[in-house]
Amino acid sequence: MSMRSITLGHYIPGNSPLHQLDPRVKLISLFILIAALFFIKTFCGLILFTFFIVAVFISSRLPKKYFFRGLKPIFYIVLFTLILHFFFTKGGEVYWRLGALTVEEAGVFLGTFMTLRLILLVITTLLVTLTTSPVAFADGIEYLLRPLRPLGVPGYEIAMMMTIALRFIPTLMEESDKIRKAQMARGADFESGNIFRRARNLIPLLVPLFVSAFRRADELAVAMEARCYRGGEKRTKMRELQTKPLDYVGILTAGGICLAILLTGI
What we know:
Radius of gyration: 22 Å
Strand content: under 5%
Strand order of the largest sheet: 1-2
Number of helices: 11
Largest sheet: 2 strands, antiparallel
Distance between the termini: 37 Å
Number of strands: 2
Order of helices and strands: HHHHHEEHHHHHH
């Protein structure tokens, strides 16, 4: 799997309704929808939630390739979830048996249910990250952390660290891809052998990547220091966050979906 398949930290500019939402609204709506997703108890509820996510995806006008690429990194997690539930969740009719191992009705139901929930969780998160710039993301996090300021929580510093982390994920992925190709041109083999040999073969990739990451971090620190950067309360913003009618529609939609799931018990 290429490192370029990781879409976390990518921002796709656009002018869709989802792009125009206030980052605070998108973050709050994301938390609400994730909570609603875990409240769902039936396949009917998951299917209805899927229709809603598909409708949001269509309205966002995002390229489909980013969602397929975003799901690639969780392939093994999904596979492990399926196997775990298929073979270790007992109950109902037995579909398949091999010695002591059995695949039963309850395992198939729960494995499929949890897999679909995991996929929806990743896609819902991707809808927010792909339509929110790192700067807007940091502004939204900083605003939401303001109530915790009296408790000593450094909201601005946390937001800045998350912004830098999100900003450098695509850069490091691109750097790792270049190092990987350079090492393969020199005869490195990252594909063959068992899992332990593959892990050992990653050393020529990881060592230069860590060196590059530390070098970039040092350069960023020097650049911020040279510009007299000082985080804190007195920093001003070129664009202040302001709520619009569309933001109220978004937060009410997310809240309405969560409330409907709780009331109906689907």
